Amino acid sequence: MPSVVGLLEQRELCARRHVDELGEEADRVQAELAVAEREWQEWVIARSRVGEVLGPVDVSEDHARNERTVPAQGQAEEASPASRVAKPNSQVPMWREGLDASVLSVDYQRILQALADRHRLRQGPLTCQEMAVLFGLDAVPSKVEALRSKSKRLVARGWLAERQPGRFTLA
Question: Which of 3, 36, 73, 125 is found 20 to 30 A from 53 (Cα to Cα)?
């Protein structure tokens, strides 16, 4: 008859093997996720670059040679103020010098404004749970995760920084 301690050791060993297998699988998935995120960022950068190249152009003063030049940085935004207004659910553009937060949708602008206020008051980084409370939302997982997703998107596009995991500041 097997001993109780021996049966417990067998079950413990099986459970340990299962934990090890899951850990290895999690490591593999994390590595795949890192590669996929890097590839995604490269596509975001490529699309942004193409957008810059194909963006609005001004006819140069040297009209006689029929040349076209890309406007100086910031001129394109001034030339078409209607294009500066963000549409609901619009994509977050890569941040660049002179780009105003008004190109972002209202939700993203609220996040930036909250962090700008914190920065101005020297209060440090903000968590998504704190943001939810600040915005008058219930601090339930669905609301917090929605804010986390938006904040992470702003980090990926250069608008925010996340120097500590889950704690966001202006970039």
Answer: 36
